[in-house]
Design a protein that fits this description.
Elements: E1 6-8, H1 14-21, E2 35-46, E3 51-59, E4 64-69, E5 72-76, H2 81-85, E6 88-93, E7 100-105, E8 107-116
Antiparallel strand pairs: 1-2, 2-3, 2-8, 3-4, 4-5, 6-7
């Protein structure tokens, strides 16, 4: 499983759909207008009956992910974002042993937040 870190929403916007359905003139915006980047992830850990929410927020100034877990705030390894966002089963080999274990992961991305990359210039 995965989710996009960048989105191009042009094909889903009103003006694009309208242009496909009619011959009328429409206002076309620059390509950057439709570009979005992932800025936040709301995570749920638990079951449908109970659980705990945490958030991952991308700090654009420091180019790092930050984990918000109640009063605990810390940097989060960007290589682990997707691993932390999808449930399922995790496979681990036990060190020094000829054994392995499977761990059920209960944390899942519940809501994704995207931010427009660049806004239109106003005149």
């Amino acid at each position: 499983c995965s989710f996009p870190y960048e989105l191009d929403l042009k094909e889903f916007c009103h003006e694009t759909i309208q242009a496909k359905e009619s011959e009328e003139e429409y206002q076309e915006f620059p390509s950057y207008y439709y570009q979005y980047k992932l800025k936040g992830i709301l995570l749920h850990e638990g079951t449908s009956e109970s659980g705990h929410y945490t958030s991952l927020i991308y700090d654009t100034q420091k180019d790092k992910w930050i984990l918000f877990n109640d009063a605990y705030v810390s940097h989060f390894d960007s290589d682990l974002v997707e691993k932390a966002s999808f449930g399922g089963v995790s496979h681990e080999e036990l060190s020094g042993q000829e054994a392995e274990r499977y761990i059920r992961k209960t944390k899942n991305a519940y809501l994704l937040f995207y931010d427009r990359v660049k806004f239109l210039q106003t005149e």
